[in-house]
Automatic annotation (TrEMBL), chain A:
Protein name: Acyltransferase
Organism name: Flavivirga aquatica
Localization per record: Cell membrane
Gene Ontology, cellular component aspect: plasma membrane
Membrane topology according to the record: Multi-pass membrane protein
Lineage, top ranks: Bacteria, Pseudomonadati, Bacteroidota, Flavobacteriia, Flavobacteriales
Top-level lineage group: Bacteria
Membrane-crossing residue ranges in chain numbering: 6-22, 51-67, 79-97, 117-134, 312-327, 333-350, 370-390, 418-437, 453-470
Family: Belongs to the membrane-bound acyltransferase family.
Alphabetically ordered keywords of this record: Acyltransferase, Cell membrane, Membrane, Transferase, Transmembrane, Transmembrane helix
Pfam family, one: MBOAT
GO terms of biological process kind: alginic acid biosynthetic process
UniProtKB/TrEMBL annotation, chain B:
Protein name (record): SGNH hydrolase-type esterase domain-containing protein
Highest taxon in the source lineage: Bacteria
GO molecular function: hydrolase activity, acting on ester bonds
Organism annotation: Flavivirga aquatica
Keywords annotated in UniProt: Membrane, Transmembrane, Transmembrane helix
Chain segments annotated as transmembrane: 9-27
């Protein structure tokens, strides 16, 4: 069941009504409803994979208790390893098994020994496995580091693991944020629910209008990059930057908004990364729940930036490579991660990785300064370039794409594969960027205008935009489902 | 809790009203003319209607139509007489031409070339050969006055039946419910762009709950033998229609695309002295696209080519007669 479907709309209204009318009295009843709803939501894709979530829930529930009940670091570590090996093993089998087999075969082929890839399996990647395994692992880590006491309430824990708004594509929640909210009875809050509805609307706009509308153009250019001039390739990867942002941040907004409807606050996942002034700021604004996960559970335990510069650089390389590999079992993602490490390290060595941590562009003025505009364009260009690896089917395609841009630079106006006016899309992107700039200070309030009339006009424009760019023929699933 | 439900409902209503207003102001929806079945059981448009045909979410194709007093989309009235030379184009949506301005139709293009001839367009979306021949039969007196009649024929689509009867599915669109729904322009727009499709699909699924499901029949690939049987049936239907409604081989000619017409039917036409105009060659030789981007109908260039082919044919016929 995807967020942008009629089924989900009906599902959400039904659960919302049941939740606040019939199940509101006790925290237990609220959690039972959320758990059942979450399993229905997930089982809608493939009910067989419910067993994986259940298994992961059971393992981490008991591991959490076992870590906490042992006082010695050795024993605690042993139990932590049980959780890590189980979750990484699950992920490894379903997501990376074939990749490792194929890479092994390719390696032998490269040295002249041809092997047949008979070990690969026909495995379907369970939706959201990368997200919920990381979420349950964070629970074990937090208990291990004594940041959290394990819950003895299995129902609450199962609800935490499978909470449907963020189950399949994040935000990857920390137990320390989500579990206490699940353990507590939720009371209806009008402002919170209205805030949720607004986020859902904005998320849908980003998905339907930005991501879905750009998808056919991006698909066309990346599939046929050998027959397009460099100008079209640059256009394709630039539009992909907006597509993936609209797609994923749209999903996150809908997830956060949906959770709000049930009285639960999820962490922010996107903080207008388009307006980042350097790559480090970009990583503080893009997929925040994943980047903080890596920071908390890999980078800091490895020593973070408190060790020697050399070791810090090593740590940066590790987290970017792991982050790349997390995205998919393909060399393209590893190159993407390596590229980001490469552009992050100079920023780190210059000590500029945290200078924009608590500020936004144009903090005290309406417009950004010329220097900020330059910084944003430079950062956007770097990030967009890296997306060539992110979007290409194979590493050969990625380098072919880059080679074509560099070696055969020519301009020719691009025509939409379905013949639509391209100017519509250019105007759309400009208006979208300007609007995002206007709301850049608060990612959780996309319609923060004092005047009710202005707000109403914007709601109408947003819905009209969805109608104007709705395409009934395209695949409406979210890009990050594949991860 | 009640407040959010009431306020959401209020907002939804106000937004829908605003969207209805916007759709009307920018004319994003297409106008649907009303249809009827006349006293001769001919299905056509109610005379003297005009409006705009719109394709795409963002009005990507926008054209004006005008239904004349005879009930067809045309730039002119049909007034055949013995003193004039007339050419009738009879066919489906390609001849009807809602996707083009009515004053830039194939008929108009031919008339501009054939200075002394009036061109009448009897086009109606969904017309097959049964509709076309029945129309000519029903209005025999009118058609007897017309010198040349061109009938558009797609072998694959237009020979499914051997006898005419009113297509009730199309006429259901004139039910009071549909008519009322069509007055809500936002609804028409949403339907045209496919936003409502998931809703209808779900409604269909809900309606089928409890009903016995039909076993799934795997669609087998059409064999050569199947195709031969099908072609034979279509040719039989063609013969039946001619037997029932008549076909003046002197004045009537078929407009076909040889590229999509089976050889067996072409042989049949040749053997039985049916005249036909083939436009496939000019389309194949065209370096520019011949169909619209947003749907499969002929674009202005495609219409120019078809008009050119018909003009040349009529001119040759005239030369032969002279």
């Amino acid at each position: 069941m995807v967020f942008n479907s009629l089924e989900f709309f009906i599902f959400l209204i039904t659960i919302f009504i049941f939740y606040w009318f019939f199940f509101k009295k006790y925290v237990k009843s609220q959690n039972i409803l959320l758990l059942i709803s979450s399993y229905v939501f997930y089982g809608w894709w493939d009910w067989r994979f419910l067993s994986l979530i259940m298994l992961s829930t059971i393992v981490d529930y008991f591991v959490g208790i076992m870590i906490d009940s042992n006082e010695t670091t050795f024993k605690r570590k042993q139990w932590l390893w049980v959780s890590v090996l189980f979750n990484v093993g699950l992920l490894g089998f379903f997501k990376y098994y074939n990749f490792f087999v194929d890479s092994w075969v390719d390696m032998f082929s490269a040295i002249g020994y041809n092997m047949n890839s008979v070990w690969t399996l026909k495995i379907i990647l369970p939706v959201g496995i990368s997200f919920y395994t990381f979420q349950t692992m964070s629970y074990s880590f937090d208990i291990y580091y004594r940041r959290l006491k394990p819950t003895r309430d299995f129902l609450s824990f199962a609800t935490f693991v499978s909470f449907f708004p963020q189950l399949v594509a994040g935000p990857i929640e920390r137990a320390s944020n989500l579990l206490p909210q699940i353990n507590k009875k939720r009371i209806f809050n009008y402002d919170q629910s209205v805030g949720g509805l607004k986020l859902i609307l904005w998320g849908l706009f980003k998905k339907v209008v930005i991501a879905d509308a750009l998808a056919p153009i991006v698909d066309d250019i990346f599939s046929n990059y050998t027959s397009y001039p460099a100008s079209s390739l640059i256009l394709g990867v630039t539009l992909f930057s907006f597509q993936v942002y609209g797609d994923f941040s749209g999903y996150s907004d809908i997830a956060i908004g949906t959770a709000k409807l049930f009285g639960i606050e999820l962490m922010s996942n996107f903080k207008f990364p388009v307006f980042s002034r350097n790559v480090a700021e970009y990583w503080q604004r893009w997929h925040v729940s994943l980047s903080t996960w890596f920071r908390h559970y890999i980078y800091i335990p490895l020593g973070g930036s408190r060790v020697s510069k050399l070791k810090s650089v090593r740590n940066i390389i590790i987290i970017f490579l792991v982050s790349g590999f997390w995205h998919g079992a393909n060399w393209t993602f590893i190159f993407w991660g390596a590229f980001h490490a490469l552009v992050f390290i100079p920023v780190f060595l210059m000590g500029r990785n945290t200078i924009y941590k608590n500020s936004v562009v144009g903090e005290n003025s309406y417009f950004p300064s010329l220097i900020e505009v330059g910084q944003m364009l430079f950062t956007f260009s770097i990030v967009t370039f890296s997306r060539i690896f992110f979007r290409s089917e194979s590493i050969t395609d990625a380098f072919g794409f880059i080679k074509r841009i560099l070696s055969d630079f020519s301009y020719k106006s691009y025509c939409h594969p379905m013949g639509y006016r391209m100017i519509d899309y250019y105007i759309l992107i400009i208006v979208f960027v300007l609007y995002e700039y206007r709301i850049r200070k608060d990612e959780r309030s996309p319609f923060k205008f004092k005047s009710k009339i202005v707000r109403f006009i914007i709601y109408t424009i947003v819905i009209l935009g969805m109608l104007l760019f709705y395409d009934s023929n395209i695949d409406r699933s979210f890009i990050y489902f594949q991860f | 809790m009640k407040k959010i439900i009431i306020k959401s409902a209020l907002y939804i209503i106000l937004i829908l009203i605003s969207l209805e207003f916007i759709v009307r102001v920018f004319h994003l929806n297409k106008d649907n003319p009303s249809r009827f079945v006349d006293e001769y059981k001919v299905e056509k448009w109610i005379p003297n209607q005009e409006g705009y045909s719109v394709t795409g979410n963002r009005r990507q194709n926008f054209s004006k139509f005008y239904i004349n007093s005879f009930g067809y989309n045309s730039y002119r009235e049909f007034t055949p007489s013995k003193d004039k030379i007339e050419l009738a184009l009879v066919g489906d949506s390609f001849i009807e031409g809602f996707h083009q301005n009515y004053y830039n139709s194939i008929g108009k293009k031919i008339e501009d070339k054939l200075v002394d001839t009036e061109v009448y367009e009897y086009g109606y979306a969904g017309y097959d050969l049964a509709d076309q021949l029945h129309l000519i039969y029903a209005y025999k007196e009118t058609f007897d006055l017309i010198d040349h009649v061109v009938l558009g024929l797609k072998f694959k689509n237009d020979l499914n039946r051997g006898e005419y009867h009113v297509v009730q599915d199309r006429m259901h669109l004139e039910s009071p419910l549909y008519k009322k729904a069509r007055r809500i322009k936002l609804l028409v727009y949403a339907q045209n762009i496919g936003v409502l499709a998931p809703l209808w699909k779900l409604a269909g699924r809900l309606a089928s709950i409890g009903k016995k499901k039909k076993p799934y029949v795997h669609q087998k690939k059409e064999t050569k033998q199947d195709l031969e049987i099908k072609h034979a049936t279509y040719i039989k239907n063609f013969q039946n229609l001619i037997d029932i409604y008549g076909f003046d081989k002197e004045r009537f000619m078929l407009l076909i695309d040889k590229g999509i017409t089976p050889q067996v039917f072409l042989n049949y036409l040749d053997d039985n002295n049916f005249k036909y105009i083939d436009f496939s060659q000019s389309f194949n030789e065209s370096k520019k696209p011949t169909t619209l981007i947003y749907d499969r109908h002929w674009n202005n260039h495609g219409r120019n080519l078809v008009a050119g082919v018909i003009y040349n044919y009529i001119k040759d016929e005239k030369t032969k007669t002279d």
